[in-house]
Model the fold of this input.
Amino acid sequence: MERIKRAFSDGNVIAQRNVIRIKRVPEVLVFVLISPIMFVLLFAYVFGSSIDVPGGSYREFLIGGIFAQTVIFGATFTGAGLAEDMQKGIINRFRSLPMSQSAVVFGRTASDVIYNVLSLIIMALTGLVVGWRIHDGIVSALLGFGLLLLFAYALSWVMALVGLSVPSVEVINNASFMVIFPLTFIANTFVPSDNLPTPLRVFAEWNPVSAVTQAARELFGNIPAGTPEPTVWSLQNPIAYTLIWVVIILIVFVPLSVRKYQRVAAKT
Amino acid sequence: MPHFAPFVNTKPPQRPRPLPEDVGHRIVDGHAACDFLSHGAGSVPSMAIIEAEGLRKTYKEIVALDGLDLAVEEGSILGVLGPNGAGKTTAVSILATLLEPDAGTARVAGADVLTGAELVRRNIGLSGQYAAVDEHLTGFENLRMVGRLYHMGKAAAADRARELLADFDLIEAGDRPVKGYSGGMRRRLDLAAALVASPPVLFLDEPTTGLDPRSRLDLWGVINDLVADGTTLLLTTQYLEEADHLADEILVIDHGSEIAYGTPDALKTQVGGERVEVVVASNDDIDRTVSTLSSLAVGEVHVEARTRTIVVPVTGGAGALTEALRRVDAASIPIHDVGLRRPTLDDVFLSLTGHKTEEPTAETEGAA
Done:
C-alpha cells in the first residue's frame, strides 16, 4: 500500500515537472494546437469538395478520423519526451534517486494526456466552424472523446518503450511516422474502407484505429443514415473492440516499458 | 599490455570489512548513517563505506571494467584517475546502481548495489559528467523536484532548495530556467542536486571537466567544504592536479583495471614529481643539453625530438629550475623556452605503464 502511494506521489512530481516544461516551451504547444486545425481545414476543404458520402456529409464523416489520427500522433510525445530525457542525462539522475521505478514513465504518460485534451478541444471547435455537429447529445460525445483519449493513452505506453529504446529524439520522430501513417490510413479514418482491395480491407476492418474511429463516429452521431451495417464484429462492436485493444496494450507494454526504464544503459 | 611499475601501497591499506547485514535498513537519512557507522566502527580504526570487488563490465567487444577492486573509508575521498574510456564512468554507474556489472560485487553504505539498490539510492548523491538537470526548469524547481523524489514534504523540499541555492551562490539565478546558466552554474546546480538529501556517500563523475580554471577552483572549494562535514566522496577525474588537490587516496585505472593505488604524495614520488622542461633552439644542442642536465635528474631524462624538448625529472622545484638555467647558461646553449612543470595524467601513465594515454575511440568513449 505504502509502495503504491509512493509510486503515485512520485509519478505526480514527474507529471508536474512535465507540465512546467509544457509552459516553458510554448513552441511545442503551438505546434500541437495548430497542426490539428490545419488537418481539419485541409481535409474538409480539399477532400471534402470532391468526395461524397451517400446520405451524409463527408466533413462530418471525416472529423472522427482526424480526431483519431491526431490523438495517435499525440502519443508520440511520450516517446520523444523520454528519449530527450535520456539524451540529456536526466534519466540517470532519476534512476539514482530512491523513487518509485515506474514513476518516470507513469508521470510522463499522464502529463502527455494534456496535449491530446488540448488538441481535441481545438479540433472540435474548428470542426464546429466547418460544419461538424454532435447529433447524439453531449454525454455520448464526451464518451467519444474519452474513448479517443484512452486509446491514445494506451498507445503512449508503446511509444514509451520505443522512446527508451532509441538513441535519439530524431529517430523516434521518423520511426513513429513510418508506423503511424500506414496504421491511420489503412483504416476507415478518411475514406470508407468498403472499396479497398481485399487484403487492405481486411486489415482496415480489424485495425483498432478503424474501431476507435467508428466508435467516435457512432458516439458523435456522425454515421450517415443510409450507411450499410458493418459486416465484421470489430466494427459492429467498435467500443468493446477498442477497449479490448486498450487492455491488451496496457497489459503488455506497461511492464515492458517500466522494465526497460530500469535497465536503460547509463548514457554519457 | 602495460607493464606494471612497482608502486608504493598497491592495495588498499586494509581490506574492506563487510558491514553488518542490517546496516542498510537503519540508514534512513545521511546523518543517521554517519552516526551509526562511526559508532559501529568504534572498535576498528576504519571501515569501507564503498567497496567493490572484481567488477567486470563488457559492452559488446569492449571491456570497460576488467576486475576492478576498490574501497573507500568513511569520511575520505578517493580520486579515480584515468583517461577517457578507462572505465571511470562505468565504475561510478555500477556503484550508483545505474548499471549492473557482468561480474563482481559492490556494496555502498552497507547495502548491495544489486539486491539492495533502493537502500543504496537513499544514501548516495550522484553528480554526473554531463550536468543532469532539467534545463527548462528553474534552479529552484530542479532542486525542489529532487527533494520531493527523496520523499521530503513539500515545504521541506522547498526550504532545502532555497538553502542549497544560497550555499552554491545561485540565489539570483534560482528562479530563472537553467537554460540561461553558464557551464559553471550548471555544475554547481548539479552538485547541489546531489546534496539535496545530505547523503553520506557522494559520487562525482568528472565534476570539473570542461570548466574554465576559475569555475574549477570554485568547485574545488565547495568539494573541500563538503568533506569537512564527513561526507564520503568518490571522485573521478582526468586531472592529476585535481586528484592531488582533493583526494586522500588515488586509484589510477586504465583499460578497466587498477594500475596504481596510493596517496597523492606516494604517487607523485613514483611519477617523479616535478619536471624541468628545456626547449633548445637547435637539434644539434639536444645531446649536449642532456649531458649537461642529467646529473640534476632524479630519473631518466626524456627527449621529445620533434619539439626539441628535454624533460628532466627533478625534486626541489624552483631550486632545480634555477640550477638548470645556470648550467644551460654556463654551457652557452641557446634556448627557446624553459619551465617547471607539474606532472600530468600523461606523465603518470608514461611513468607507470610506459605508454601515454591513448586517444579513445568513439566507441569506448560511448561505453565508458
